[in-house]
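Handout, section 4.2: multi-component inputs.
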Amino acid sequence: MIEPMLSVRRGTQAVDFYKSAFGATEEFRVEAPDGAVVSKLVVDGAAFWVADESPEHEHFSPETLGGTTARIVLVSQDPDALFARAVAAGARQVWPVADQEYGWRVGRIKDPFGHHWEIGKPLEPT
Amino acid sequence: MIEPMLSVRRGTQAVDFYKSAFGATEEFRVEAPDGAVVSKLVVDGAAFWVADESPEHEHFSPETLGGTTARIVLVSQDPDALFARAVAAGARQVWPVADQEYGWRVGRIKDPFGHHWEIGKPLEPT
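Output:
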């Protein structure tokens, strides 16, 4: 299994956002005395992690660095619906869901914590 | 499915590194006229992507930003062997594989392209 761990500011708020935006469920959480969290979230059986940034370990939020070093491909059977849900929850559309010539139906959002998501699925062969 | 897409410099070299370090196989590759690649790699049935950085889309390599906004958890049945293989291929040990009090056997590396990997597995209940 390969599971990305996203560095964010305001980790507890980020967890709430991903629950709302993607219908994620939280499987595991560790909370430090200072409020920093490490949380494992699951969407349609696939896991990702959210952790408050720790600059001493070279883990920064996209807000701190002004960009990301990894974007996340989220494969969904209904990317249009999931994309719309994420935008309604506060994500910003970068480009809308559309059929791409490389054989995917996919769109891109930037979430309120600076992470980029490509929400899509492979097109059926025609 | 959730699949991280890692931004790197020297994309074709990075793909070769991940094949060597993790035994990854390449399932898909798009190469631009300027040599930039987008590559889908698979390790033990789990996928991740490698793409040359595109600053115009806020996608930067860790080398450019001096850190990462996401680290990658790689679950392996034999984390000790996979960790050793990655280090032999050129990754740097951040901390060695060891049993952690939160119930995982895990170590951390930083690869030559700046990405951080936690290689581990859940400990068996004792």
